[in-house]
Amino acid sequence: MSAAADRLAAALADRYRIERELGAGGMATVYLAADLKHERKVAIKVLKPELAAVLGAERFVQEIKTTAALSHPHILPLFDSGEAGGFLYYVMPYIQGETIRETLNRETQLGVDDAVRITREIADALDYAHRAGVIHRDIKPENILLHDGRAMVMDFGIALAVSAAAGGRMTETGLSLGTPHYMSPEQATAEKEISGRSDVYSLASVLYEMLAGQPPHLGGSAQQIIMKIITEPAAPVTAYRKTVPPYVAAAVGKALEKLPADRFASAKEFGAALNDRSFTTAMTAASASGRSPQRDKRFLIASVVAAVALMAAVAGWLRPRATPVVSRFSVALTEAPIAEGGSPGSRATLSPDGRTLAWVSGEGTDARLWVRPLDQRRGTALAGTEGAGDPSFSPDGKRIAFTSGTTKRSLRVVPVGGGPVLVLTDSLVGPAGVSWADDGYIYYDGNLQGDGLARIRETGGSPEIATVRDTSRKEVAHYRPSALPGGRGVLFFALGVRSVGVLDARTGKHKMITRAEAALYVETGHLLTVTTDGSLLATPFDLERLELRGEPILLAGGLLKRGNTIDFAVARDGTLLYAEGADQTAASELVWITRSGVVTAVDSSWRGTFFSPEVSPDGRFVAVGMGAASGSTVVVKRLDRGAEIRAAQGTWSTWMPDSRNLLIWGSAPGGSSIGIVPADGSKPPQWLGIDGRFPRASPDGAWIVYTTRPNRVVARRLTGDTSQVVLASEQGTITFAPVLSPDGRWLAYVSRDNGEQLFVRPFPDAGSARYAVASTSRISQLPFWSPNGRELFWAGADGKLMRVSLAPGAAFEPSVAEPVFTTPPMLFSGGGVTMAPDGRFLAVRTAGGEADRPDELVLVQGFFEELKRVRPQ
């Protein structure tokens, strides 16, 4: 333990035995301890020394007694408090569980029913406390514990006790009471009298985040957030999640009103409205219409005046330093535009000194690695880098490691100034990221044992297994390695749980640390993460313990997530690089495309983050995945009318021949990932006990084909002998995306062998022949058959939909591959394309058919200074 913990342990030795630190927040550090008298585990919160220094211990203990009298099933009780050895502390029961913040870090959003239930439980606790004369003043996700699904409010009245004990000296501590995202306007404007309606506002903010995945107001600093709270109305929660019921959205809107008098009179009323289906937006509008415009104007003027005064206080709390100006500018790559992307890796990076940019331009075999010193106007293509991807500079900045897919994918190294290219390995190299560590290892997406990470010495040699996916935690694959300094370990993205994990190089074990798509560590002591919606966050990170040490702060939004590609890097001089482009997480829509290229919307009012559409065999319904940060949902809708039906949680779905049931690929207890679920959502999935991906049913419904590990396409009967039958298992390659022809005679699948190839085999006697249909650097859309079985379709790296036609007969004799459209009517958004029984194509595109704007690289110089201002250490 630390010296402070040792002193605390000595001071409390007669009552408590300190075991370990549990975490630290803005005002206190939390320790797990044993209550020696009552023989129970407790959590001891110790106020930060800088805060305790200005508090009167006697006054603090006296004020906190008020909260000790609270007794409610949704309030975490207070056991003890006091002063010992110069420490101010209070003691609560130690309860296994996680805070809402921890849940949101992992899930980003909660189910609507769960979020509303949790909020009503908290509202009940607040109503009880308010009637006892106690206002919480600091309702936020970190202060709400979820235990066995039940909400328990922590730190009740602590903020009031600290404020009362400190009197007017809070600014001396450098700490603020209330977290900016959840402050009520009256807290933000430093009103002296705070009522229970302030807690109602804060609780509504927490519910907003549980539903929308973000608080009502965001900003790059506390000042920006507070100004928005004071002056800007919160966007309706349905703007971020349209499935929120109108009465819930109306209740949230009323609770977030700027004027306390326009909110619910009590937490009880708020909780009741969340359960009242008759509480509609009309009620909120009626409430708003009774407001006096002059009163609003006076309130706004007063708020702004108060805000100006408050900014000085906030500035004092955060202690911003006098720093150089932060510069942002776009890098023009006119001679070689950045590649369109699509792989799970990256396309651009910076040298460690921040002086040289490296990027990939071109697609497939035409891709090349380019470098450009930032003090020059033009870049240079490096010879011998055909098919390049995933560039990563060496720690000294003199070489670049990259993957190459011109032959079987390999890991290579080239000097920055050009020269001989060294092939480090061509064994099981994947397209999902490279990171050159400062201990002489290069980490990469390698499939030496499942879809984990591999590493190899920078001088070559035999590749080593770095990480092995944990199937018990539903980890599907490990992508995007990012080495930590000093050989401490490596960060990575875990597909399946959609979280960032960290490998501890000392133990060889890994753990998940936060919900995000990519991460890297910077020398200011922060973990930078990119979320599903393209937000860039910074969180203090303990490099020794490999743990997050605080709350994330939003730094920027709009980072490009091009398909599975994420580009961002930070140099040692504090220069940030990231890519911007069309919003890949924006709403999309389903469209029909005819053979002549005419595009029409299926339902212009139906929008979401769609992917993998599948038309039912009878042509009446569509099943489509809807992406969300908290997980994907399989949605079913009639193509001609009707509301959507949420059939199940899952990543992928396809129809059974009866048009009534779906095969889904999701996550279930016991490691099963394939199940069958009614399309109307009337029953939960029936899991088949199979750990596989991309399942498809045979036309007679007797078989399913799917991808399993290691790298095999297999089949299994649904009745009778259900043992697996291996259909395809190319040595040293990855096979996936199997699909059977409508007559059940042919199996098409993709193999990552010599690039990516589309193969066809007979079914079920797959070992008797193998036909190569197409070879390309990347199959960007999964293959599918026409309903009559006479055509096989796929899309290549250039986004063109391709086809071969088949002549009737016993032999497989495809025509020469050709584009479906002479002039492509659109670029598929990555969400997928398929064919309906009537011969039309069903595809996903950005809502309204807006064209993507070209990707661009953005440099931010002085980024470390900006980071220190918004998150001082």
Question: How does this structure look, described?
Answer:
The structure is a single chain. The chain has 873 residues and is α+β, with helices and mostly antiparallel strands. It is 18% helix and 34% strand. The protein contains 14 helices and 59 strands. β33 and β34 form a beta hairpin. α3 runs antiparallel to α6 and α5 packs antiparallel against α11. It is globular, with a radius of gyration of 29 Å. About 6% of the residues have low confidence.
DSSP E strands, number: 59
Ranges with pLDDT <50 over ≥5 residues? 165-178, 282-323
End-to-end Cα distance, whole Å, is 21 Å
Give me the number of helical elements: 14
* Overall residue-averaged pLDDT value: 80
Based on secondary structure, the structural category is alpha+beta
What is the molecular shape? Answer: globular
Strand order of the largest sheet: 1-2-3-5-4
Task: State which percent range the strand residues make up.
Answer: 25-35%
Fraction of residues in helices? Answer: 10-25%
Q: The biggest beta sheet, please?
A: 5 strands, antiparallel
Radius of gyration: 29 Å
Q: What brief labels describe this structure?
A:
873 residues, 5-stranded antiparallel beta sheet, 14 helices, 34% strand
In brief:
With 873 residues, the chain is α+β, with helices and mostly antiparallel strands. It has 14 helices and 59 strands. A hairpin with a 5-residue loop joins strand 10 (348-350) and strand 11 (356-361).
Secondary structure elements and pairings:
Blueprint: H1 3-11, E1 16-24, E2 28-35, E3 40-47, H2 49-52, H3 57-68, E4 80-84, E5 87-93, E6 98-99, H4 100-107, H5 112-131, E7 144-147, E8 150-153, H6 158-166, H7 185-188, H8 196-212, H9 222-231, H10 246-255, H11 267-273, H12 281-289, H13 293-318, E9 327-331, E10 348-350, E11 356-361, E12 368-373, E13 380-381, E14 388-393, E15 399-404, E16 410-415, E17 422-425, E18 429-436, E19 441-446, E20 453-457, E21 464-465, E22 477-483, E23 489-495, E24 499-504, E25 510-514, E26 518-522, E27 526-530, E28 536-542, E29 547-548, E30 553-556, E31 561-562, E32 565-566, E33 568-570, E34 576-580, E35 588-593, E36 599-601, E37 610-615, E38 621-626, E39 633-638, E40 645-649, E41 652-655, E42 661-665, E43 674-678, E44 686-687, E45 693-697, E46 703-708, E47 712-717, E48 725-728, E49 735-740, E50 746-751, E51 756-762, E52 771-776, E53 779-785, E54 791-796, E55 801-805, E56 818-819, E57 833-835, E58 841-846, E59 856-861, H14 863-870
Antiparallel strand pairs: 1-2, 2-3, 3-5, 4-5, 6-7, 7-8, 9-59, 10-11, 11-12, 12-13, 14-15, 15-16, 16-17, 18-19, 19-20, 20-21, 22-23, 23-24, 24-25, 26-27, 27-28, 28-29, 28-30, 31-32, 33-34, 34-59, 35-36, 35-58, 37-38, 38-39, 39-40, 41-42, 42-43, 43-44, 45-46, 46-47, 47-48, 49-50, 50-51, 51-52, ...
Helix pairs in contact: 3-6, 5-8, 5-11, 9-13, 10-12
